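If your schedule permits, I should be very grateful for your opinion on a structural question. What I wish to show you is a protein chain and, alongside it, a tokenised description of its three-dimensional fold. Would you kindly read the sequence against the tokens and tell me how you understand this chain to fold? Here, with my thanks, is the record as I have it:

===
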Amino acid sequence: MQDHIRYLVVEDRPDWSQALNREVTDYFAGMRGLSRQRIKANTAYDGDQANDQLRDGSFDLVTLDMNLGQSASGSKISGLDVLAQIARNNSAYFVLIITGAVNDPELEKNYGPEAAALMRYGALNEAVKRLPAERVRILNKPGDAKAANAIDKIRSQIHSALDQYCNVSRERNIFRPLPGNPDLWEVRYNGGERMNIPHAEPYQMIRSALAQPGRALPVIQLMQRIAQGSGQSATVVENEKERKPGTLRPSSIDYAGHQEDDVSGDDGLDWSEMEGFSVEDHAPVYFNDQQFHIEDLIGALLAAQRAGTLQESLPEIVNFCGEEVLLTIPAKAMEWAKRGDAADTVFRRDDASSSLAALAAQLRPLLRPIYLRLQAKKEAEAAGREKAPKTKKNIRVAQAVDTPEMKLARAHWKRFKEYIGRREMLGDFLEHVRLWIPRDPTTKGHLHYRPPTSSDLYPFWLTE
């Protein structure tokens, strides 16, 4: 359940309205531990007021009387009419009907015999026709003159109904891999129909944002985590027909004979002793005022290695981290390769040592041209043909207009909208995501799931 509740009490008697407001608020504060500042109570004293509030916004919960009397405009809108408005616009998730219609002598006078009979004997049936049975409950209002005394008599029933709301509200909004079948995703928006749709990598990005409302998620870390978690490189491929050779496929290179203590490589270069390129564990890398570690880059390269796309990924990785940072990877990967369980923990995979050693071996010939070019540049500077730059203590990434991760995030965003937009039933869900997550989420280098207004009441999403 979410950490807030927005509810509406529709009741024409002020004493009952106040008593119900107090009871519902006390339940969520006392029984569910919600802060009272996050319990938003609203009241309507007739059908016109109820419909006006329901048109202006969506409520988590509505308590509803059947006989709402005559409004100031002279209209006689019943609880069944309000219920129809709720169902038509899906403007409330759960409806708790509390009515004394069975013994109310004014029903025929206000609404006529046919409507009166429905409210007396068929209110629940009418409600279930409009809303799923799990989202509606009906209680009989005691005939006591004092509302407080009547509430005392049905308190346990009210709490039971509110318990029911809490249980079903967890599955009001769902966006997650289908349990037991990772090839499908389960999607449900605002209590609508549950749908199973084929897995697509872009969903992971939106899921991460929905799972952490109000928290800015750096795109760089997000995309690296997705790549590591899926064992795939940061390459978007929609289907087999679009797959390019080598994309998202296991590496065909056999590294079984590689010696873990080999740090020199076939090219004769001693990569562990390259002047100016050795780094300590968790050496900081900065980008757009955000700090990362050298191990984050190694993790991204491991994901590309596993997918067999390491060589194709290098140009984009160079654009992100710079050549000098990339040249630190072989030696640092070999250091971690010798640490066994510690490497497994840091890089979140079994037998990370062999993968790290293989990564270093595969990178050396690919990086050799870069190394030789930078060495030639240093020699030229030493000879006085160009002034040498000052050495920086920390590895820094040059400020760039864009990064591979941000480009990939935008591609994911575009494909997410394309995939979801194909399904008419998910139109409201797509509109919700468009409103609550900026249309260009990577402009500032992060995703932020936030409401389009100043409200801080985030919907709860079941993402696990």
